[in-house]
Backbone:
């Protein structure tokens, strides 16, 4: 794609701007900021990736992954400030998922241990873990606020913190996993996933594109389950004080 063709795609930004202006939604500023930031960030990342791919050095690959993890942790942290130690808990969750998935992929020779495979796959895994963590924390916060009296009643009757928060915790884990599961049910029928579409547009064999997409689908399912469960069980003890009272 040429820069001229890329410039023409701004039509897809002008249409939302026109609609938000007409309907007085007040999203013009946010839309423009999001557009400018996405252009700058993606172009910078593109040049960085070109350098990393050409260098093919483990240190550069690791630094790129750490940069993605750091950005993801910072984004999730803002949604869970009510949880003590949320930064390291989110960081531990995302790092564990990254090590687990890459360990399986490289250890079983499913994908080569090269920057071309490690960085894009890591980006999808880390990004998905970030979104799922935010979904979990948002739902967990709402569940706790809605059932605070129930949790305190269980504690007053001699229940443990785990028993007091169990229903809210499980409900939040399920709610954060459902979007991933439901999207996979219609994949290929309602939507053609981004990775598969990108490979086909680039000229790859459709069957090979489908095989890689299936790999990503399975990875994201693991990411959804592990991120929600691990973050949930790391987080809930912080909601109680040393006297086992809900803070």
Residues:
């Amino acid at each position: 794609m040429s820069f001229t063709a890329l410039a023409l795609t701004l039509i897809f930004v002008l249409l939302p701007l026109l609609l938000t202006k007409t309907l007085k939604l007040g999203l013009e500023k946010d839309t423009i900021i999001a557009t400018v930031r996405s252009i700058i960030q993606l172009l910078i990342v593109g040049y960085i990736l070109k350098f990393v791919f050409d260098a093919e050095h483990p240190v550069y690959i690791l630094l790129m992954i750490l940069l993605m993890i750091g950005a993801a942790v910072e984004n999730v942290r803002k949604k869970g400030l009510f949880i003590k130690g949320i930064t390291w808990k989110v960081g531990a969750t995302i790092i564990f998922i990254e090590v687990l998935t890459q360990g399986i992929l490289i250890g079983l020779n499913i994908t080569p241990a090269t920057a071309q495979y490690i960085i894009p796959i890591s980006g999808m895994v880390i990004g998905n873990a970030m979104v799922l963590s935010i979904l979990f924390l948002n739902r967990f916060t709402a569940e706790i606020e809605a059932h605070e009296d129930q949790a305190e009643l269980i504690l007053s009757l001699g229940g443990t913190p785990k028993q007091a928060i169990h229903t809210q915790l499980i409900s939040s884990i399920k709610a954060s996993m459902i979007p991933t599961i439901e999207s996979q049910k219609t994949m290929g029928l309602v939507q053609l996933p981004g990775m598969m579409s990108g490979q086909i547009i680039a000229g790859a064999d459709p069957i090979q594109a489908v095989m890689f997409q299936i790999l990503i689908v399975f990875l994201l399912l693991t990411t959804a389950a592990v991120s929600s469960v691990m973050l949930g069980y790391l987080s809930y003890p912080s909601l109680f004080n040393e006297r086992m009272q809900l803070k």
